[in-house]
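[stage:ingest] chain + small molecule (EPU)
[stage:ingest] validated
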Amino acid sequence: MQVNKNVSLQAYNTFGIKTACGELVILESKADIEKAFDLFPQSIIIGGGSNILLAKNPIHSVILNRITGIKIISENDKGVQVSVGSGHNWHEFVRWAVSQNLGGIENLSLIPGTVGAGPIQNIGAYGTEIKDVLEKVEFYDFEKRKFRSLLPEQCHFGYRDSVFKNHLKNKGFISQVFFNLTKSSYYEVNLSYKGLTDYLNNLNIKSPTITEVSNAVISIRQSKLPDWKELGNAGSFFKNPEINIDLFKKIKQSYPEAPSYPIDSKTIKIPAAWLIETCGFKGVQYGNVGCYLNQPLVIVNYGNALPAEIIDLKNHIQNQVLDKFGIELVPEVTIVQ
Ligand code: EPU
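[stage:predict] done
[stage:export] tokens:
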């Protein structure tokens, strides 16, 4: 465990916000978890820093999760169970699985952040969610002062949601995540997402391998989403709202082209990107901030943005969408303030 004093967090958040912290604690081993949280209680935990907006300055203390490592726990004819340190880079883990010909997470290629952040918001993309391949989550409970395992049903996974965002919020620390991955001979790739099948069809790939799916997802993401190393951002800023079907029918009268995905007989999901684009935000820039041209759901930092500028744009988008459609957009990004 290393402790550095008065550090800028700019390199530790993908928005590239220049917030500072009094103490930056670099946590590299599971054995130091208890000590780190005893010495620095109430710290903000940062993994990849890819889903946060650091709107408070300075932050008292930050624990930077760098607990890494992939271990095969068990193996049978059909697949393997692996444990991964919560600070391991998510995409590196995906590429490891792909290189071993293990299926289950290739649709989640190139998602920024760490493995431990995955279950918190049940990361998902191109028809797959982390919950689909999860065996259990190991969690250090601050109050009980011990590690416990949570099975998927105890994690209460929903769309970009879990028990770690609700009942267990600030109650502990995810230390390791266990996955069930399937060997390619027993595995069927998930091609349920239209954008992905369209992309593969265009390449004339009819029965893609795990590697081909991963490569396709990487290309699609690179074409739609900005690289935070070039243009600071935190991915989708808002969740896709679920709305009542009657409200959607009303919207359809004025906007027959409005896209939607069915949830149940009373509810549909409407893409936040479409709502934001229809309100005229696609590609806009106000000072240092804006909405990305290829995906307006992504708020970008054109350089030196202050958190307040991002929050002003967030509020402006929320107000316009509410006025025009009667829909409240809920941030997906965690705002630390
Ligand atoms: N759309 C527009 N205008 C645009 C872009 C999209 O109207 O400029 C509409 C279209 O109708 C399109 C629909 O939005 O069909 C969906 O767009 P896209 O496939 O890009 O996905 P998304 O719903 O905007 C979600 C996740 C992404 C994930 C993709 C792919 C959320 C909040 N976002 O975006 O996750 O990569 O699906 O599965 O659920 C993230 O969480 O940070 C993230 C990037």
